[in-house]
Amino acid sequence: MSILAVIMTIVHVILCVGVSYFALKRMQKNAELGGAFGSGSAHTMFGREKGLDSVAKLGMWFGILFMISCFITTMLIIK
Predict the structure, then answer these.
(1) What are the CA-CA distances from residue 25 to residues 8, 47, 58, 75 (Å)?
(2) What letter does residue 51 receive in the DSSP assignment?
(3) Rounded to whole angstroms, how far apart are CA atoms 39 and 21?
């Protein structure tokens, strides 16, 4: 296994922990029964929230980077 594959595996694990953290942090916000089914709008008066807060944006970017990291790490390990 090359040094690049080892470094990419470490980055991949860090991104995995980050995605898990932000997913659990986001789940705490919608922890009531409606949040279990994806509604998450129990605390809004006029329907669903518009846009994402900073934690949700950061979680989205961690998810995108994790997906890209999956492909890159797989290509480096198979090679």
Answers:
(1) 25, 22, 11, 31
(2) S
(3) 21
- Cα separations (Å) of 49 from 2, 13, 26, 44, 53? 46, 32, 14, 7, 10
Q: Contact, 22 vs 62, CB < 8 A?
A: yes
Count of CA atoms in the C-beta half-sphere (13 A) of 37: 5
Q: What is the pLDDT of residues 13-41, one digit of tens each?
A: 999 999 999 888 877 665 555 555 555 55
Tell whether pTM > 0.70. Answer: no
Q: How far apart are CA 79 and CA 65, in angstroms?
A: 21
